Amino acid sequence: MQAIQSQFWNIREYLSPVLKESKFKEHGRITPEEFVAAGDFLAYKFPVWTWEKGDTSKARDYLPADKQYLLTRGVPCLRRATSLAYTDADEDAERMVSFGDSSISGGEVDEWVETHAGRKATVDSAANPGTIDDIPDLDGPQDDDNIASGIGSLSLGSGSGGGTAETPDLDDIPDMEEDDLEEGDEATAATTKPSAAVIDAGDIEVAKGNLLQVRTYDVMITYDKYYQTPRVWLIGYDENRTPLTPPQIFQDISADHAHKTVTIEQFPHSASLQAASVHPCKHASVMKKVIERMNNSVVEEQLSRRKSGGSAAAANTKEAKKKWPFTRKASGPVTDKLQNEEEEVEGMRVDFYLVVFLKFIASIVPTIEVDSTTSF
Amino acid sequence: MPIVQFAPFSSLIQPSFWHELTNLKIDVLRLSDEALPISGSYSTGKSVKDRETGQEIALGCNLSIGSESFDKGFKPSQGSIAVLGTLKNYNTIDEFKAADKTVLFNREAERIWEHTLKTRDTSLLTQFLLITFADLKKYKYYYWFAFPAFVSKPAWEIAEDGWKDASSEFSSDALISIHSHLRAHPAPLPFFLVRSDATGTTISPVEAYSTFFETTPSSSQTIAFVDPSANPANPGWPLRNLLAYLRVLYPNSTSSVRVLCWRDTDIQTTWKSRFGVVEISAAASETSSRPAAVGWEKNPQGKLGPRVADLAPMMDPERLANQAV
C-alpha cells in the first residue's frame, strides 16, 4: 500500500510543472530558484546548515547539482514532546516573544507566543514515553529481538547468560586483555556511568529516567515540487547514538502532528534511506499567514523610513545591515542593492523564507532545536 | 595534581552508512572480508543550553561515519576534520565473535606508531578501526569501534589552575586571529601550533614544530587541536595521541605543554575553547618503543562489547508497510 502511494506521489511530483514565477507572498509557495536563494541565505547566516548533493541518480534537475537539499547534523533534542503536554495551568506561562528587531520603535513588532516559558518538565520523558503503541513485530517468533537485547546486555568479562542454540550470543568474545587494559586506564574520562548490574536493553530508558536523554537528529530540508514548499526530514539517534525507531521519533513530535502529518517515507535523495517527514500539504497556507503578518510590519516600517526623507538613503543601507532579516543588502542571487533602493516598498525578501519556515517547523517538533536562528 | 582525563570518541553511524555497506556487500564485496579503508569525521564539541534549567549540556564527542565514508576522495563538511579508518566486515556472526581483536587492535596501533616515527606526519594519529557483521536478512548490524590511543606512563597531569577558558589566557584579538588563520588554511588542521609574539598570533601545522618554535620562548608556545569534546574538564581523545607524538619526537621540550582545546567554529560573544597546562614528570623514559594503547569503545552498558544497530524498523519493507497504514 505504501509502495503504491509513494509511487503515486513520485509520479505526481514528476508530472507537476516547475513553479516559475514568484508566488511566495500570495500563496506561501516558492520556486526552486527561491528555494536555492533562501537556502543560500540560511547556509550563509547559519553555517550549521549545508547544501548536499545527495545521490546523483536521484538529483532533481530543477535544482543545481550541488544544491539538492539542506542538511544539518546532530541537532540536540533534550526532552520528549510528550513531556510538553499543554494544560490550562500552562497558559499563565505564556509570554510574548518579539520577533525580528525589538529596537523598532513603532511597537508594531510581530510577536510570537512562547508557551511553557520557564516551565519545569513535570512529566518525565523517559518514565512516561507516551501512548504511542509499538508496531507489532511481524517476524513471528521473537528470536531476533532476543539477539538485540542479548547483545545489548552483554558484557565481556562475565561469562554468564547463555542464549539458546540458535541465538548468536556474543557473550564469549575473548577480549580479556583489552578489558584489563581499559579498566586500568585512568586517563579515560568516564562518559556513561556503568551500571552495577547488567540491565536488559528494554529497561535502560526507564532506569535512567531522571537523567536528560539527549537525542540528536539529522535534519534535512528538501524542495517538494508538487507542493512547491520546502519539506523537512528527520533521522534520529538516541543518547547511545543508536538510530531511533519510528515510534521513538513520534515521541518528539507534538501530539497534534504525530501520525497525522508526520510519516516515515523514502528520502527522495537516496536510493534506500527512510526518514520521518513532515507532510507539506499545509505548509503553503501556514507560511502564507506567517509571511503576511511579517510582511505587513516590514512594509509599514519601510514606508515610514521612506517618508523620513531621501537623504536618509545612505543611512538606510546602514540600517538595512542592522536589520538584515528583511532587507539584506549582501550579495545573493536575487538580491540587488541598487534595485533595492529604487524599488517601491518590497516588504519581506524571499531569502528569509527558510528562516521563517524553521520557526514554523519548530512548532511541530517543539523539543528538537531546529531553530538555531533564535539566537539572533 | 590531578591526572588529565580525556573524553573518548563516541561513534555515530548514520543509517546511510549501513545502506551503503549493504549495497557494497551484495554487489561488490560478496564474501570477501578484506579490510577496507574508510573515512569518518569529527568537529568541534557542541553543547546545548537547556532552555528550562539554563544548564549547558555537553553533547557527545562524536566521530561520525556515513555513506560518503566509502568514497575515495572523502571530503568532510566545512569545519569538520577527516579521519581515516579501517573497516573489517565479517561474513558470519561466529567469525565476528571469534576474531582476534587484540591482534587487530595492535596492528592498527603499530601502524600509527611507525608511521608517526618515520614520517613525523600527524594524519594517522586519529586512525580508527571498525569491525562489523551485517545481518542483512534481519537488518541488524553488529559493530565495534576502536580508537587507538597511546597510554602515557606516568600519566599527564594538569597544572593547579586546571582547565580554564581560553579567553583568560589569550586576548580576544589573538583568538580571532587564530580563528581566521584556521579558516584560511587550505586543509582543515586537526592539530596546530600557536605562537604569540610582537607581530601577532600565528599558527602552523604541528609537523613544523622545531622550526616554528625555534625562536619562541616556551612561555608563548602553545599546541592546539580541534577538540571534539564539549566537556569543560575533559579534553577530547585526539589530544592523547598528539601528546604521545610530541613526547616521542621532542622529548626535551615537552615535559610541560601549554594546550589549547579549540572548540569555536564561529566567532561569538563568548569563547568556548579551553586552555590548560599539562605536565609529565621528567622521569618518563625516553625510549621510542611503542607504548601500550587503549581505545575499544564501550557499549551502552558501559562494558567493553559490541553495539548493535537495529534498522529493521526503518528498513524492513514489511514493517514500513505496516507503519504506513
Summarize the structure.
By secondary structure, chain A is α+β, with helices and mostly antiparallel strands. Chain A has helices spanning 2-15, 24-27, 32-45, 143-152, 176-183, 204-207, 246-250, 283-307, 313-322, 337-342, 353-364; strands at residues 50-52, 69-77, 95-98, 111-114, 215-224, 229-237, 262-266, 274-278.
Mind explaining what this structure looks like?
The complex is a heterodimer of chains A (376) and B (325). With 376 residues, chain A is an alpha+beta fold. In chain A, 30% of the residues lie in helices and 13% in strands. Chain A has 3 domains: 2-82 and 212-282 and 355-375, Yope Regulator, Chain: A (2-Layer Sandwich); 84-123 and 285-352, no CATH class; 143-207, no CATH class. Chain A contains 11 helices and 8 strands. In chain A, the strands form 2 sheets. A 6-stranded antiparallel β-sheet of chain A has the order 1-2-5-6-8-7. The two termini of chain A are 45 Å apart. Chain B is of the alpha+beta class. Chain B folds into 2 domains: 10-152 and 289-324, Cytidine Deaminase, domain 2; 157-279, Ubiquitin-like modifier-activating enzyme ATG7 C-terminal domain (Cytidine Deaminase, domain 2). Helix content of chain B is 25%, strand content 29%. Chain B is built from 8 helices and 17 strands. In chain B, strand 11 and strand 12 (200-205) form a beta hairpin. Chain B starts with 9 loop residues before the first strand and ends with a helix. The relative contact order of chain B is 0.19. At the A-B interface, helix 1, strand 2, helix 4 and helix 5 of A face strand 1, helix 1, helix 2, helix 3 and strand 17 of B.
SSE sequence of chain B, one letter per element: EHEEEEEHHEEEEHEEHEHEEEEHH
Low-confidence stretches of chain B at least 5 residues in length (pLDDT < 50)?
none
CATH fold topology of the largest domain in chain A: Yope Regulator, Chain: A
Tell me which CATH architecture of the largest domain in chain A applies here: 2-Layer Sandwich
What's the mean pLDDT score of chain B?
A: 88
What number of domains of chain A?
3
Count of helical stretches of chain A: 11
* General form of chain B: globular
Oligomer: heterodimer
InterPro entries (chain A): Atg3/Atg10
Protein name (chain A): Autophagy-related protein 3
GO molecular function (chain A): Atg8-family ligase activity
Subcellular location (chain A): Cytoplasm
